[in-house]
Write a structure and sequence with these properties.
Layout: H1 2-24, E1 31-40, H2 41-46, H3 54-67, E2 71-80, E3 84-88, H4 105-108, E4 112-116, E5 121-128, E6 131-138, E7 145-153, E8 156-165, E9 169-176, E10 194-200, E11 205-213, E12 229-231, H5 233-244, H6 248-252, H7 254-258
Parallel strand pairs: 6-12
Antiparallel strand pairs: 1-2, 1-11, 2-3, 3-4, 4-5, 5-6, 7-8, 8-9, 9-10, 10-11
Length: 260
């Protein structure tokens, strides 16, 4: 009888403690997240080398490795509240690299993405060569597979989720439910919390949060971009397909990049 009473008291204490802990957990709903995008240029350039071009790309690649770091690093910022977010790139004076081999569409891609979580819609400003497009569409639907793997990112415990988008692009995301907003960098959303880490392993590119500041974000910092030719995701894909249809499958692969 005493043993039964002892276990009953123990379970009651654990139950009450868990409830008190849950009540004291703070969930972030407003703030600014600073991301660092890292592109493995050695891997990206090396993948472009084949038997037909190795006589001129290989020397350029070797020279690039002698005078440049392996990773190209760029900073981006996500402003958010519980209803919407704005992902953008701060204006910086970039040092131009005269080595043409370092130019890579994925590494240089810098979209501005406004997401409305209530309407599940987005407005994305994309630069496609000499043109700027304003892509208005619904948010990307991603079939995430949540795993048990966790890691710490910028002081937040994050859980791993995997997905495949655009039929062939493998994505790894790390999200935290301590930030109660289903957002993330670029056009990635749909997890039960904020995505703080994102990796495209086969594209050799990652985005990871480096700093998170909980503040009330003013409305002016969440205003959608307005400059660009209005279109949809399908409309932009049609434009790029038409422009590159005579340049072979390698050129058409850029549809994937601009659909990102």
């Amino acid at each position: 009888m005493k043993t039964t009473i002892k276990y009953t008291i123990l379970f009651a204490v654990i139950f009450i403690s868990n409830n008190l802990f849950a009540q004291n957990v703070h969930f972030v709903q407003n703030g600014v997240i600073e991301f660092e995008k890292r592109s493995n240029m050695y891997a990206l350039i090396k993948k472009k080398i084949n038997k037909e071009n190795e006589s001129w790309i290989q020397p350029a690649y070797d020279q690039y490795k002698k005078s440049n770091p392996q990773f190209k690093v760029a900073k981006s910022i996500l402003h958010f509240n519980k209803d919407k977010s704005l992902y953008k790139w701060p204006e910086t004076e970039e040092v131009m690299n005269n080595n043409w081999v370092s130019r890579d569409m994925f590494a240089d891609l810098k979209n501005t993405v406004a997401t409305n979580f209530d309407t599940q819609s987005s407005i994305t400003q994309k630069s496609v060569y000499e043109e700027t497009y304003l892509v208005k569409d619904s948010v990307r639907k991603i079939n995430w597979k949540i795993t048990d793997e966790t890691r710490d990112i910028a002081g937040y415990e994050c859980r791993r989720a995997n997905a495949v988008i655009m039929d062939s692009v493998y994505v790894v995301a790390y999200y935290t439910n301590q930030i109660a907003v289903s957002g993330g960098p670029e056009s990635f959303t749909g997890l039960p919390g904020m995505i703080l880490g994102l990796a495209l392993p086969h594209e050799n590119i990652t985005w990871f949060a480096t700093k998170i500041t909980e503040i009330n974000v003013p409305e002016k910092d969440l205003v959608s971009p307005v400059k660009g030719k209005p279109t949809t995701n399908k409309g932009l894909a049609d434009v790029i397909t038409k422009a590159f249809k005579n340049y072979g499958p390698e050129a058409l692969s850029e549809i994937k990049i601009f659909s990102f």
